Amino acid sequence: MFMFGNFIKAIADLLNFVLSAYIWIIIARAVISWVNADPYNPVVRFLHQVTDPLLNRIRRFLPVMGGFDLSPMVLIFAIIFLQSFLVPTLRQIAAGLQ
After folding, report:
1. What is the extent of the structural domain holding 15?
2. Percent helix, percent strand, percent coil in the chain, to nearest 5
3. What pLDDT score was predicted for residue 66?
């Protein structure tokens, strides 16, 4: 049973890393939106492709705030919630199995 506990702990650690990396990708996307970046740049295209699906879903529910896009901040708060709720829950499940 300890192997399954270690597996769940590894999933929790990997999930925590992926969520942290995605927060930095969202921050980079927001910073690039402040400047006039080349839309054909591969980095800019990557940032748009990775973040637009989730940001567009959030934008449907947010009102327009005078040109301010609050969707990155809402998404970052949601990711922080997942990190503070889901990751510790998985770690506690793993600790109970060891």
Report:
1. 2-92
2. 80, 0, 20
3. 79
